[in-house]
Design goal:
Structural class: alpha/beta
CATH superfamily: Metal-dependent hydrolases
CATH class: Alpha Beta
Largest sheet: 8 strands, parallel
Order of helices and strands: EHEEEHEHEHEEEHEHHEHHEHEHH
Number of domains: 1
Mean pLDDT: 96
Shape: globular
Low-confidence stretches: 330-334
CATH topology: TIM Barrel
Distance between the termini: 10 Å
Helix content: 25-40%
Length: about 325
């Protein structure tokens, strides 16, 4: 049973919010042909995509070719739109959540859905998270910051407590990354900015005490946690030498053990490091389908790790994702 936890989907029929609300900052999908389109932001091409990003049947074809039984589908992060008025962002979130839930209901043997919520308003985010649960979505994907505020912003604590209470796991994905003025060349935004952004998000959740206050909250960090796993000893050292800054009873590494990480690290030695530091039960196979930096075939880094026992590979390739998402169903992946 192979479950690809990290995949993104974009509704082909998503309304043109840039026209509706007279603001070009909204993402717009401009179809070029039956199998290709551009995601446009502020009048510029943000990303070129293929029909893999919107067509469930095409995705299922790819899954069968690449040996994947189920995909966990989540929104493309550019659609988070935390910068927008909350009523407008909620409208976009609800359209996407309805689309993802509809896709899951149409193809329940192949897809599990994650929703999105307007994080710029905690009350609205909580209400939409409740609706996502009613729709049958298994969790929520959120960004690494909200309009430049880290995830330890005081107003967000009720959201994290609600996610814990509702048993809605959170998938934290980088967006609106730091140092954007220094990362355009060489596409460093994707290879350096995103991993650094994810590290800041994970560190903020821990250092602020959110993970201490929400001990049963399930959080998975994208892209193997970015640079977070490798700077964790430095975070611990900071906690040791700056006691006046401590907000938690234990050092960061104590709470980091509660995090999950997708396996998108491309390298078997990096995967071995993640497993050694956090345990194989906290690693979830994810490929970033259908984008250019994705792993092909999904789970390749796991398959290429000869020292991993078969039961460990089995857990990482599928069982851990289902456990993280509190998902139970028989007869899937037909």
């Amino acid at each position: 049973m192979r479950v690809d936890f990290h995949t993104h989907i974009y509704p082909l029929e998503l309304p043109d919010f840039s026209e509706k609300y007279d603001n070009k900052k909204w993402p717009v999908l401009q179809q070029k042909c039956s199998c290709g389109a551009d995601i446009m932001v502020s009048g510029k091409v943000f990303r070129e995509v293929t029909d893999q990003v919107w067509d469930p049947k095409k995705r299922i074809e790819d899954m069968k070719k690449e040996g994947v039984d189920m995909q966990v589908i989540s929104p493309v992060p550019v659609t988070f739109s935390y910068w927008a008025p909350v009523e407008q962002a909620l409208e976009l979130a609800q359209f996407q959540n309805d689309f993802i839930a509809g896709t899951v209901n149409e193809y329940p043997d192949y897809f599990i859905g994650l929703g999105t919520v307007p994080m710029q308003d905690a009350d609205a985010a909580i209400e939409e998270m409740r609706r996502c649960k009613e729709l049958g979505l298994a969790g929520i994907e959120i960004g690494t910051n909200v309009n430049g505020e880290n995830l330890d912003a005081a107003y967000l604590l009720p959201f994290f407590k609600a996610a814990e209470e509702l048993e809605m796991p959170l998938f934290i994905h980088p967006w609106e990354t730091m140092a954007q003025d220094r990362t355009p060349r060489h596409n460093f935004l994707y290879t350096i900015g995103m991993p650094s952004e994810t590290a800041l998000a994970g560190a903020s959740l821990i250092w602020s005490g959110i993970m201490e206050k929400c001990p049963n909250l399930k959080v998975c960090l994208a892209h193997g946690g970015g640079s977070f796993p490798y700077i964790l000893p430095r975070l611990d050292q900071g906690w040791e030498v700056w006691p006046h800054l401590r907000l938690t009873e234990h050092p960061p590494s104590h709470y980091a053990k509660n995090f999950y990480f997708d396996s998108l690290v491309y390298d078997k030695d990096n995967l071995a490091f993640l497993i050694e530091r956090f345990g194989h039960d906290k690693i979830i196979m994810g490929s970033d389908y259908p984008f250019l930096l994705r792993e092909i075939d999904p789970g390749k880094v796991i398959d290429d790790s000869p020292d991993l026992p078969s039961e460990v590979k089995k857990a990482i390739l599928g069982e851990n994702a289902l456990q993280f998402l509190n998902y139970q169903k028989s007869g899937v992946g037909k």
